[in-house]
Design a protein that fits this description.
This protein has 778 residues and is of the alpha+beta class. It is 31% helix and 25% strand. It contains 22 helices and 36 strands. The strands form nine sheets. A five-stranded parallel β-sheet has the order 2-3-4-1-5, sandwiched between helices. The chain is globular, with a radius of gyration of 31 Å.
């Protein structure tokens, strides 16, 4: 009797195990001493294959060790603990505790690096203790990608064990099998090191009808023709192992009978009722949600994966290639390579992850809107433009200049389509996203283009202001855009001109400066230190006034939290808030006019309304509040996160935006009702800012990514991820520049470019790269 198992590794004796071509290929490869890897999507039967193969090898007298990387740990683990865990797992799997004392051995070799210890363990102990051939299986290897340290050297040792075979015969007895959800290039990520390019890839395909006969045994009680029933099952699952086992189990346990000749219709009804309809609820054990999360997990790749997947939905199939996005999409499990063509794996995935779902996710990511909203445009033309832009992104690594030209042509087609309309009226912003992304990459890697040895000054994308020695907490522009003022943890204030030249600097603010305010009308700026001391300065550094605000002291909190100071738009008032939840309003002479309790504990941010009549405060109680200057509460904006880091007033004064720990931007009217909201970074948002024209919003994620959105939530621009915290964003008054205060002590100025400006910069890049006027664009 066949017993179906839905999820988990099948035991060796499982009656529902389906033997595939991969079983023989992996067994024969490892038996012959080949390094093998099985890198595929989740729930494809990799671990079951490993269990089966180990039993066969052990029956041949080959010693086998199985290391589950997830069992070693990936959270709060040190490199010492991880390498010791690997060695201990090998010793345990081979039952060598009687011959090996890990603690003593580790102490004896304490002067060696971790990677040298691992190498020493293999050569000095393992190959001596095991006299037969030995296979070490590393399962769930993709979990190492989540470790807080790099393991390039670990995989380099495995590769070196293979290379040692030429000089040392005992290494010919040792081989490895790498199993997980990753690409070979993921395993050694430092491109300066030799890639992990050894071994034999074992392709793990879905179940074929002929090899799936063991599954038909359990269906015999439901139908006189179990093979027809099994075929109907495979027609829906495409042979995907987990889904096939699950659907067979559902069929076998269903109470209703199957009339002869209705197998296909009966299975279709069951699939729709028990799997597709309300799929998120019916997805137990979890499978479809896993695929969804794999597609959406990486903010860096999500948009490209969605666009590539949508292209496959449109065309039915596309040519497969070795580009990273193509491999990443395959690893989600949603698509499969069939005869060198990528297509959606099965009918179930096509029904669940359909075009409607893709467009909804793209809209959440801000990359597109519903086409119905732009009925005046040609749908085929929009799709053609998007596909061209996506093709440019996919081909960039192999053909950077050709990709840039393709992106430019897509952008030019969009420009022809939209004319002089503003970007918020564009039917798609994919070409802008593509062009921006490619120009980012080229500015970071000028050697990708043949004739460039440096980034031409005319094509530089960003300006970096370097003067602080520790985190920059705050940066602000003067209202005329001529100056920037920055303040940081090093206790210094820097004054810069609009080109990035430092004009002046002042030191000596103990404890660092979390906040700084600039008044262009008075040519003054104000600082407040962690002890609550407020100082007002003339633009070139002369101190004009000083007064103490004890309620704003913040010395009991971490350095990333401190008192906040803001000038009113006319420069006549100062608002100051601090740890005890009190907001106070002062005049520029140091006279306190009023104060009130705004939040139960610390206030994280505050800002004046454009007319200077109201104050918006944000606290650690997941709430923003709107006040008049007498301290009367007018409205409250409550979110789901813990802290609200970012708040900003719309330039017209009619709405506000908040962002914080829950990774959601929310636009509110002044009555406290949410107008629109969307997720942004898959991490907490540290700041948010309206552009001066009020038509876009900038956000800064904890991981160092800055994104620009229109008010509907479409992603207009994604600036380069700098992999560090950005504490403050500030637009220049003309909206053409965005300043970011960074954790590394740098202030970065990013140009905010429209479609024409992006095309012009791309033209200049091509002209500099080709060392001649570029006339091949049409």
């Amino acid at each position: 009797m066949c017993e179906y198992q839905v999820g988990g590794s099948l035991p060796f004796e499982a009656s529902s195990y389906v033997t595939r071509q991969a079983d023989e290929e992996l067994y024969q490869g490892l038996k012959a001493g080949e390094f093998c890897y099985v890198l595929n999507s989740r729930q494809m039967g990799k671990s079951s294959l490993r269990v089966r193969t180990m039993k066969r090898l052990q029956a041949d007298g080959i010693a086998c060790a199985a290391i589950d990387i997830t069992a070693i740990g990936t959270s709060d683990i040190t490199p010492d603990e991880w390498y010791a865990g690997v060695i201990d797992s090998i010793v345990s799997s081979l039952d060598l505790y009687g011959l090996f004392d890990l603690e003593q051995w580790w102490t004896d070799h304490k002067l060696l690096s971790n990677v040298r210890k691992f190498r020493k363990f293999i050569e000095g102990f393992l190959l001596k203790a095991i006299g037969s051939n030995l296979v070490i299986f590393f399962d769930e290897v993709d979990s190492v990608l989540n470790l807080p340290f790099n393991l390039d050297d670990f995989f380099a040792v495995i590769r070196d064990c293979y290379n040692q075979r030429a000089d040392n015969q005992k290494y010919r007895r040792l081989t490895f099998a790498i199993i997980g959800v990753a690409t070979p290039s993921d395993l050694i990520q430092n491109k300066r090191k030799a890639p992990f390019n050894i071994g034999r890839a074992i392709e793990l395909k879905g179940f074929q009808l002929a090899e799936s006969k063991p599954l038909a045994q359990g269906l015999a009680k439901k139908s006189r023709d179990p093979m027809t029933l099994l075929k109907a099952t495979l027609d829906w699952t495409g042979g995907q192992p987990f889904l096939t086992q699950k659907l067979c189990h559902l069929i076998a346990t269903e109470k209703s009978d199957i009339p002869p000749g209705t197998e296909a219709i009966w299975v279709e009804h069951l699939v729709k009722e028990r799997i597709i309809n309300n799929w998120e609820t019916n997805d137990e054990p979890e499978h479809l949600r896993t695929i969804r999360d794999r597609i959406l997990w990486s903010q860096e790749n999500k948009v490209q994966l969605l666009l590539l997947y949508r292209q496959i939905l449109h065309q039915g199939e596309i040519p497969a290639n070795a580009q990273r996005e193509y491999l990443k999409l395959r690893l989600t499990g949603a698509v499969v390579n069939h005869q060198n063509k990528l297509k959606v794996y099965n009918l179930i995935y096509s029904a669940v992850f359909n075009e409607k779902w893709v467009n909804q996710e793209l809209k959440k990511s801000g990359i597109t809107q519903n086409i119905e909203e732009f009925s005046s445009y040609s749908l085929p033309e929009i799709q053609a433009i998007e596909q061209a832009a996506h093709h440019a992104l996919a081909e960039f690594q192999s053909q950077p200049l050709d990709s840039l030209i393709t992106a430019m042509r897509a952008a030019q087609r969009l420009k022809t389509l939209v004319g002089d309309r503003p970007v918020e009226d564009y039917p798609t912003v994919v070409p802008l996203y593509a062009l921006q992304t490619l120009l980012h990459q080229l500015s970071l890697n000028p050697l990708l283009t043949p004739n460039l040895t440096r980034v031409p000054e005319t094509c530089r994308y960003r300006t970096q202001l370097k003067g602080h020695h520790q985190t920059v907490w705050n940066v602000t522009f003067s209202s005329d855009g001529q100056y920037l003022v920055s303040a940081g943890e090093d206790g210094t204030v820097k004054l810069w001109d609009h080109s990035g030249q430092q004009l002046a600097g002042w030191q000596g603010f103990s404890g660092g400066l979390r906040s700084i305010a600039y008044s262009s009308k008075l040519q003054q700026f104000a600082t407040v230190d962690p002890e609550g001391m407020v100082r007002i300065w003339e633009r070139l550094g002369q101190k004009l006034a000083e007064f103490s605000t004890p309620h704003a002291a913040f010395h009991a909190y971490g350095s990333n939290i401190g008192p906040i100071v803001k000038f009113s738009p006319n420069g006549e008032l100062l608002a100051i808030a601090g740890r005890d939840g009190i907001t106070a309003v002062w005049n520029s002479s140091g006279e306190q006019l009023t104060h009130w309790k705004s939040h139960q504990n610390l206030i994280i941010n505050l800002c004046f309304s454009p007319d200077g009549q109201y104050l918006l405060t944000a606290g650690a109680d997941n709430t923003a509040k709107l006040w008049n200057l007498a301290g009367r509460l007018l409205s409250e904006f409550k979110t789901k996160g813990l802290w609200l880091w970012g708040i900003s007033y719309h330039p017209n004064g009619q709405c506000v935006v908040t962002a914080g720990e829950d990774d959601r931007v929310i636009i509110w009217n002044l009555s406290g009702q949410a107008i629109n909201e969307w997720p942004c970074h898959q991490t907490k948002i540290l700041d948010v800012a309206y552009s001066p024209n009020g038509k876009s919003i900038a956000t800064a994620g904890k991981q160092g990514t800055i994104r620009l959105w229109d008010l509907s939530g479409r992603l207009l621009t994604e600036f380069e991820s700098i992999q560090q915290k950005i504490w403050t964003l500030a637009f220049s008054p003309d909206g053409k520049c965005l300043a970011a205060a960074q954790e590394d002590g740098t202030v970065t100025l990013w140009p905010v470019e429209n479609l024409d400006e992006l095309l012009n910069r791309a033209y200049r890049w091509l002209q500099d790269s080709l060392d001649s006027d570029f006339e091949g664009f049409a």
